[in-house]
User: Fold these one by one.
Assistant:
Number 1:
Amino acid sequence: MYVILVYDIGEKRVGKMLKHCRKYLNWIQNSVFEGEITEVKLKEMVSIARGIMNEEQDSLILFKSRDERWLDKQVIGVERMSTDTFL
Amino acid sequence: MYVILVYDIGEKRVGKMLKHCRKYLNWIQNSVFEGEITEVKLKEMVSIARGIMNEEQDSLILFKSRDERWLDKQVIGVERMSTDTFL
């Protein structure tokens, strides 16, 4: 399935979460990821993410679609994270 | 149509952009909005957003879907911006 992931994570935990999410999805903006992922891999990703985040302070939202073609993406301004290579 | 909007905006401009986007969509996370919007209203929103942002530094991504039912949303952790009322 196709997934958009957005998070709002406390500063202390955000680096770890970024590295974690990049293992599963494409990083497209500061705290936004997208990509194709299986149900099994998504469950694994969420399970590990729960361990990283503080569920009383942090937020992670997933938008799931069976097919990427149902979504039309438009980028305005900077196309790609220029910091994509610094990690 | 149903729209998800995510932005990464320089600190000096982010307050203005937040206020602007909230006029059109629902604020669901730090820099994430969603909602039903017409094509005409969306064009108006993007046009004004371009005037607020620095297109060489800032980024705004729109995911558009004809129907919200094609997307399944899952929230992990904090459900709503606790700062929603401070503006």
Number 2:
Amino acid sequence: MKKIFVIGIGPGEESYMTPAAKEAILASDVVIGYKTYIDLIPHLVENKKVIDSGMKKEIERCNLALDLAEEGSTVSLVSSGDPGIYGMAGAMLEVKGQRDSTVIIEVIPGVTAVSAAAAVLGAPLMHDFTVISLSDLLTDWEVIKKRLHLAAEGDFVIALYNPKSKGRVTQIEEARDILLKYRKKETPVGIVRNAKREGEAHMITTLDEMLQHPIDMLTVVIIGNSNTFIQGNKIITPRGYAL
Amino acid sequence: MKKIFVIGIGPGEESYMTPAAKEAILASDVVIGYKTYIDLIPHLVENKKVIDSGMKKEIERCNLALDLAEEGSTVSLVSSGDPGIYGMAGAMLEVKGQRDSTVIIEVIPGVTAVSAAAAVLGAPLMHDFTVISLSDLLTDWEVIKKRLHLAAEGDFVIALYNPKSKGRVTQIEEARDILLKYRKKETPVGIVRNAKREGEAHMITTLDEMLQHPIDMLTVVIIGNSNTFIQGNKIITPRGYAL
């Protein structure tokens, strides 16, 4: 059966990779993914063709996966987190559609970055939340700003993906300015880098002071709602239970 | 060390339970959780005290876990999905704070319901999204309605948790009415019951026709944004790549 697994391995360490992800890799002839991740699982890729996707663009990678599957290989397209959240699942299905292919695409979900970051911070996501990417490479910045306004007005807990990169530094500043129109400057903010993998670091701060801490592309930023509070070294958004 | 693990086992089957979750259970003296889930992992709970939390309320369960940990036991509080998303992590930390306890609480994230449901449907979450619970047991319905309006206006993909229960049937109807003020009736909607576990069933439909299909508490409903489309038997929200 011609098949591509689009696999999320979670934060990046084997302890958060699901057995389903492992089994799919073991069932594959070819594994495409970043060397950093593949290097963590050498015992799973023995005797397989491994293609380091480090330098490949997303659509190229999907076309390559489809070429190989059409030739009869079972292919794993491996990435971190959950491939269904800003991940490779969409591009892979779009490429399949564009090429009118009959290859079967199976998405294997993983522990996504917002779950990993929340676990490090305590319990910030106990209530309705939004996930917003601040990357304006593929999305108009005006659309992102509108979403920040509406999410803030709705008192959603807000998780920001791709908050800042080397060449993109003002978006997180503008995002904070927007949020301060709706929320108190004491609003708890959690900043987590490399959540639940090697090099994990986190900071619990406030909307007022968040920009004093390092933020980059490996960071998820979580902004509390109007009920979120800091307890010791944790952030908690109450669900509303009577204690 | 007095410790409580708040563990998410993912959708419910062992293939989506992380090794970190298993290791935490194995390291525990007491495991508290629904019998349905514990029964799936008999080899992990041999020689352990197992407490079926089926009949216990959330806060009671947290107090019990804390009592046992204070007495010196390492305790696992086990639930499905991710305990950090509408789960037990918040209540457990709140109870710890209320009792001014020094017990260490560690949250072990899992594959959350929205990731599992999205994987079944294809790739609906490729862009900014919101997660909203329609349960008004702990949240004022007016707050939930306001959030639905704002999320719809912001063109977020919208995932609805707890869309309907036996005693709560009108919320999903009202939610649909609100969304129809902002989105076309052809907007793709995915309905997934028991995502990535036994009894999985799903339906791909539209905002117009979604109420003709069964929806209950085991269901997650995902409503596309203005760019979401149906391709074959999958829902795709394009990320914006040029193919």
